[in-house]
Design brief:
Oligomer: single chain
Number of helices: 10
Distance between the termini: 32 Å
Structural class: alpha+beta
Shape: globular
Helix content: 40-55%
Length: 299
């Protein structure tokens, strides 16, 4: 299931929308929030921070390379956790002025991180609190996204409320640690859950095409009732609900591309009827596709 940080309006003024990447820094006292926006294709951009960074993709995507050179897609619905001093590289193959890549990064200095973790371990000793640096790329859960959004919403206010940002940072770190733990369990259960994993991968790769229950049962090598039971147990929703959510999340990013109209987006996300797409989008996002475009169009 995708859990995405709320979309933000573009932060970079129009006259600055050139070069590889623009950065807006927001002071939160003992930590900071950065909004990075990339307006043109680029390759092997260095990512390095003097402190722990937790980033979540808001719009667009980039290909990130580990220290070993292995690539993975950094997309909305996922977060990237980078230890202090660690350097990785990223490609932005699809970034453009009319549809930039946008990412929010919470940067926490080492001293602040140590103070916060020590507080959690001292105050709540029944758990051992700490960041798992072996898991840098994780799927968001709803609680991590909520904590991310709370910080982004607060820092947009003026003047800054440092006591409240400190409390939100504690909550955010707890959610990061819990999301890492959940991701670890999901990966460790993958052999047991392999049929669901294969089906989910098929859905993501074919989201623009008709997807039948018969095709999913064939891929999972199981009956329809077993397929539904597996999805309810491991995803908390039916296969149809999962497909719709994937289509809605994909359409959200496609609608931000000015080169595509609403009909294009509907067909590219597997809908054969534009009116049905509009109806489902309004139910899911509480606004029409047209309203959504106007809200986040680049001025």
């Amino acid at each position: 299931m995708n859990h995405c940080v709320d979309l933000l309006s573009i932060q970079t003024p129009k006259h600055l929308r050139a070069g590889l990447e623009n950065r807006k820094r927001l002071d939160c006292g003992d930590f900071e929030v950065n909004i990075f926006e990339t307006f043109e294709p680029s390759t092997k951009v260095q990512i390095h921070h003097e402190g722990l960074s937790v980033s979540s993709m808001i719009r667009g995507r980039k290909t990130v390379y580990t220290e070993d050179g292995d690539p993975f897609e950094f997309t909305p619905g996922t977060s990237l956790i980078l230890p202090k001093g660690k350097t990785i590289y990223a490609d932005f193959p699809h970034a453009k002025d009319s549809n930039p890549v946008q990412c929010a990064t919470i940067l926490i200095p080492s001293e602040t991180l140590e103070t916060q973790i020590n507080f959690l371990n001292k105050t709540y000793p029944r758990s051992t609190w700490g960041i798992d640096y072996s898991r840098l790329h994780i799927h968001n859960d709803s609680e991590l996204v909520r904590a991310f959004n709370e910080i982004l919403q607060l820092v947009s206010e003026s003047p800054a409320n440092f006591p409240l940002t400190d409390l939100l940072l504690k909550s955010f770190l707890i959610r990061v640690i819990e999301a890492q733990s959940s991701h670890k369990k999901e990966v460790s259960n993958m052999p047991i859950n392999s049929r669901v994993y294969v089906v989910k991968k098929y859905i993501k790769e074919n989201i623009g095409n008709p997807i039948s229950t018969q095709a999913l049962t064939r891929i999972a090598n199981c009956s329809k009732s077993t397929l539904y039971r597996l999805f309810e147990n491991y995803c908390g929703q039916s296969p149809g609900e999962y497909i719709l959510k994937e289509r809605m999340m994909r359409s959200r990013n496609l609608l931000l591309d000015p080169d595509l109209n609403i009909s294009d987006v509907a067909y590219q996300t597997g809908f054969t009827s534009v009116s049905y797409f509009v109806k489902q989008f309004k139910t899911f996002h509480n606004c029409t596709p047209g309203d959504f475009i106007r809200k986040f169009e680049i001025s």
